[in-house]
Specification:
Layout (H helix, E strand, L loop, with lengths): L1 E10 L2 E11 L4 E5 L6 H8 L6 E6 L2 E2 L5 H7 E4 L12 H5 L4 H4 L7 H13 L15 H15 L3 E5 L7 H14 L2 E5 L3 H7 L2 E6 L2 E6 L1 H4 L2 H8 L3 E6 L2 E6 L4
Parallel strand pairs: 3-8, 3-9, 6-7, 7-8
Antiparallel strand pairs: 1-2, 1-4, 4-5, 9-10, 11-12
Helix pairs in contact: 5-6
């Protein structure tokens, strides 16, 4: 479990996060939603120690600041929003196998089973046989899935993912959503598509202006009144396969 207590982040005279308290439960996929600028990415970056924490963060009861870099990598595998900009000059296999750092340690040679992990991770994101292809020759969606494969190859206890379905067509976005549910790991995932959030999430954390605006199951949060309040848009909500499905009206 990831526990966050009274977390704040101030940039200039503005609080990007304002005394946020929340948790990401064991084995649950928690979708983090909210308008642009609500603090979603900032919240996840505090989990990776990108920003100094003003508050308390614990992973399985252990204070975040006490973990070594390698211990943190064994606990959290991270996909950042701009991750696909990295590693374009590598082959897919060489980039994905870097996720094994947490298991091998920095500077130690990879072994055959590490590359086996990498090939298996590529297959899980639908890129079987892509290992020898250069990332620079791939489409944006393929690059995004390579970076997700690197996260899976890390074999960490929890996943922290910032818009992992970005750049993906509907079929591949749904496949990634299904994969995240199959992993059964503690997962914090930023998602803008509310229908994808409904499909993938066990719980939803909503942020607004750096504060927690709501927390609950998809059925509890993805209601027409709450979506109107949070995003200022009109939505019709129906049930599809037992989960909320939202249809939107154009403004004006």
């Amino acid at each position: 479990m990831i526990e966050i207590k009274d977390l704040s982040c101030q940039l200039g005279d503005r609080y990007v996060l304002d005394h946020v308290s929340c948790s990401f439960g064991d084995g649950l996929v928690t979708a983090v939603i909210g308008p642009n600028g609500s603090g979603k990415t900032t919240l996840l970056r505090h989990l990776t120690r990108t920003y100094p924490s003003q508050g308390r963060i614990k992973i399985d009861g252990v204070p975040l600041e006490t973990l070594s870099s390698r211990q943190l990598a064994r606990n959290l595998a991270v996909l950042e929003q701009d991750a696909m900009l990295l590693g374009a000059d590598f082959t897919a296999s060489d980039l994905v196998v870097m996720g094994r750092y947490a298991q091998r340690g920095f500077g130690r040679a990879y072994e055959a089973d590490d590359f086996g992990f990498a090939e298996a991770a590529l297959a899980r994101v639908g890129l079987e046989g892509f290992g020898s292809r250069r990332v620079s020759d791939m489409s944006g969606g393929e690059r995004q899935r390579v970076m997700l494969a690197r996260v899976l190859c890390q074999d960490a206890a929890a996943l922290v993912l910032d818009e992992p379905m970005n750049h993906l067509d509907p079929a591949h976005a749904l496949a990634v959503a299904a994969l995240l549910r199959q992993e059964k790991k503690t997962t914090a995932v930023v998602i803008h598509d509310l229908n994808l959030a409904s499909l993938v999430a066990d719980r939803i954390l909503a942020l607004e202006d750096g504060r927690v605006a709501g927390y609950g199951t998809p059925a509890e949060l993805l209601t027409a009144p709450f979506v109107k309040k949070l995003f200022g848009v009109d939505a019709a909500v129906t049930l599809f396969d037992g989960r909320p499905h939202l249809a939107f009206r154009l403004p004006g």
